[in-house]
Specification:
Distance between the termini: 63 Å
Number of domains: 5
Bound molecules: 2-(butylsulfanyl)adenosine
Radius of gyration: 29 Å
CATH architecture of the largest domain: 2-Layer Sandwich
Number of strands: 22
Largest sheet: 5 strands, mixed
CATH class of the largest domain: Alpha Beta
Strand order of the largest sheet: 2-13-10-3-9
Structural class: alpha+beta
Number of helices: 24
Shape: globular
CATH topology of the largest domain: D-amino Acid Aminotransferase, Chain A, domain 1
């Protein structure tokens, strides 16, 4: 039996600790991935104890792949952003066999073939994560976030016992990104809630919530106490891609020691796929984790590539979603919300009801036509459905046949509940709209949208403040926000404001002037222009002047913008009051030019930097901020367009790419010098 010898010399400790690490990591793999074991718990604990002893005596010997790191590390204050090597896309949904068949036929047509193999996987209901291994060692891990950038949860992911800290087998790629789902087993979920109840803590509603809560603990030693698990479902980025099919990638992940689902099946026809989906439906209740459907993926990677992505979803994959969960409750009242484009959206206030572990108090009623068609009335008993993250919906009403009191028919308002203007005629359009461009509710929503996190990000200007500013006449158009500093005293005197909050609001407004132009374009609330299309627009036109002068056909040249949106954008910029608004934004000093001129003075403006490997003196996100501050841009992959490759420790395949493309290579010190030279 191995025990720690406190007098162990350094050289012996080095060899011994390395051997112990391998033995323990392998034992861990057998236990948590393969569900077998070759050593007893007693032996495992003794070896672990010995390794801890050595690492305590010689802290230099601790490595990121040591099983001792699984207990977590020092708590952090916040999660830093982590840019994924490749964006993490989402999936289109299908809710029945017909939709799956349509999807399959469409992809066959696209590929010009009569048959295509599909891989069917369980759709785990947890959280998507991306793990990057550099030279076989787990380097970083992030949540999905917005698909491009997530939160760096490396320390927390390391605590998950089935996650390889080091890939098995020796031919490691320089870099490989593995993607998978983190989840919380049912059995452990009940135990966790029991303990939380005893400790007087709030209970988690679902295993998915507890997976999310556990993964996002700032203190990773807290995560380490939670029995999270991770199943890999794909390879993202791979520096020396060897495989031809998705099923081979899964097999490769398994060879590297990663856990994959043993249920996965490859089929050759859509009929077989539908059978497999039915099998999964039956299997659902017997599993110790939540699944919310089956994911079907085209097996051939070449076919995946040619099918590509449409919008946000790949054409080569689809999620069949199990039918949603339902419950019956009473509809207390119908409320009307007026959106920033004037649409009157009804919603139902419900007698709270639990569905799938979540308390539901509201449901959407979509539009007046929906209420009319389903004859939904205040006081009705209604069937509410909830599916995943989708807003709960009312499927229908429970028959009123046995009711003694029949609720009266609901009459949809013919006037805007905020400004009393007549709303659009129900015979002409499904959606009722308030057409009053000066409707205060619309303007309040627009104001709220303008300052929201993804738009100009003005903190302190949320729903309530937007109402105050508009109702008191402090802000009559969006540009008025930028002269609020002249109304300091009035702001300070607002309910619950005071001097500190006023300072913060004014500062936040000032800061927003430096937001990149794509955010300004998104903030304007032009119908059909989202975060992504705003960026496409500024990438194409570079400045607000050019956007203003563009024709409908110019907008149509942007991939992803169709004729309806092109016309709406064009129209927006032709309206005098909007042109006036743009003038005011400019004189307030808001950025209205894309990229280079934003940072006119900097020699590095527009230069593209790629970082490879780990930096010593700063985190990646700090480096990204420094680059942005001098007007540079960052990219995840090296091409002939890259201006600098910053090589940190273990730089990996990007360094090779930089050499091939004659890209100047900067060591960390040279990078810092370069940045510091730019004023
Ligand atoms: S593949 C293009 N496979 O479902 C491929 N996703 O609705 C994108 N998920 O964000 C993902 N099990 O969190 C894939 N076997 C599986 C999955 C799976 C669960 C989740 C994942 C993703 C979401 C998309």
């Amino acid at each position: 039996m191995s025990t720690f010898n406190p007098n162990i010399p350094f050289e012996t400790a080095k060899v011994r600790s390395s051997s112990l690490r391998s033995q323990l990591n392998y034992a861990n793999y057998l236990y948590y991935v393969k569900n077998t074991s070759k050593i007893t718990d007693f032996e495992y604990d003794a070896k672990m104890e010995e390794l801890r002893g050595i690492e305590k005596k010689y802290p230099n010997l601790v490595t990121g792949t040591s099983p001792t790191v699984r207990v977590g590390s020092t708590p952090s204050k916040e999660f830093t952003p982590l840019v994924h090597p490749k964006p993490m896309t989402s999936l289109a949904n299908a809710f029945n066999a017909d939709e799956l068949t349509v999807w399959y036929k469409r992809l066959l047509k696209f590929l010009g073939t009569s048959q295509c193999d599909l891989v069917c996987e369980l759709k785990l209901d947890g959280l998507a994560v991306s793990l990057v291994y550099v030279n076989g060692v787990l380097d970083r891990a992030g949540t999905r976030g917005n698909g491009t950038t997530g939160e760096n949860v490396t320390a927390n992911i390391r605590t998950i016992k089935s996650v390889p800290l080091q890939l098995l087998s020796d031919n490691f790629p320089a870099l490989v990104e593995l993607r998978g789902e983190v989840f919380f087993p049912h059995s452990a979920f009940e135990k966790l809630n029991y303990e939380r109840k005893a400790a007087g803590l709030e209970l988690y509603a679902t295993p998915r919530n507890s997976a999310s809560g556990s993964l996002r603990q700032l203190d990773s030693s807290e995560t380490a106490k939670r029995p999270l698990d991770l199943v890999f479902y794909s390879i993202g980025e791979w520096s020396d891609d060897q495989v031809k099919t998705h099923s081979q990638s899964l097999h490769q992940i398994q060879k590297w020691g990663g856990k994959i689902s043993s249920w996965t099946k490859t089929v050759s026809t859509i009929e077989d796929a539908l059978d497999v989906v039915n099998d999964a439906t039956r299997l659902r209740d017997s599993l110790d984790y939540d699944i919310d459907g089956v994911v079907l993926k085209v097996d051939s990677l070449a076919d995946q590539k040619s099918l590509g992505i449409v919008g946000r979803d790949p054409r080569w994959a689809i999620a069949y979603k199990f039918p949603a969960e339902k419950a019956i409750t009473t509809l207390k009242q119908i409320h009307i919300n007026v959106g920033r484009s004037g649409a009157l959206t009804p919603w139902a206030e419900l007698e709270p009801v639990m569905i799938g572990g979540v308390k539901i108090k509201r449901a959407t009623l979509h539009n007046r036509e929906e209420i009319h068609r389903k004859d939904i009335r205040e006081g009705d008993r209604v069937i509410v459905q909830r599916a995943g993250d989708v807003i709960p919906q009312i499927v229908g009403i429970v028959s009123r046949d046995l009711d003694t009191i029949i609720p009266t028919k609901y009459v949809f308002p013919t006037e805007c509940p905020y400004c009393s203007s007549t709303v659009t005629d129900s015979t002409k359009e499904i959606i009722a709209r308030c057409l009053n461009a000066k409707c205060p509710a619309q303007f309040e929503r627009l104001l709220q949208h303008f300052s929201s996190k993804d738009a100009m990000d003005i903190s302190g200007l949320g729903e309530r403040m937007a109402q105050e500013l508009s109702r008191r006449g402090f802000v009559k158009n969006l540009a008025d926000i930028y002269s609020l500093k002249t109304k300091r005293v009035e702001l300070e005197n607002l309910d619950k404001m005071g001097s500190k909050k006023t300072d913060n609001l004014i500062q936040s407004i000032e800061n927003s002037k430096n937001q990149p132009i794509q955010r300004l374009i998104f903030s304007l609330g032009i119908h059909g222009v989202g975060k992504e299309s705003a960026l496409w627009i500024v990438e194409k036109f570079n400045s607000i002047d050019d956007i203003q002068n563009a024709s409908i056909s110019d907008f149509l040249l942007i991939e992803g913008i169709g004729p309806v949106t092109a016309e709406l954008i064009h129209k927006w910029f032709q309206i005098d009051s909007n042109r006036d608004l743009i003038k005011k934004f400019k004189s307030a000093g808001i950025k209205t030019i894309y990229k280079t001129t934003n940072y006119g003075s900097s020699k590095l403006s527009g230069n593209i930097f790629v970082i490879s490997g780990r930096l010593d003196s700063m985190t990646r996100s700090e480096a990204y901020k420094k680059i942005a501050a001098v007007g540079g841009r960052t990219s995840n992959s090296v091409s002939a367009k890259t201006n600098y490759l910053i090589a940190g420790e273990n730089p990996g395949s990007k360094l090779e790419m930089a050499k091939i493309n004659d890209v100047p290579i900067l060591q960390e010190k040279a990078f810092i010098d370069l940045i510091n030279k730019v004023e």
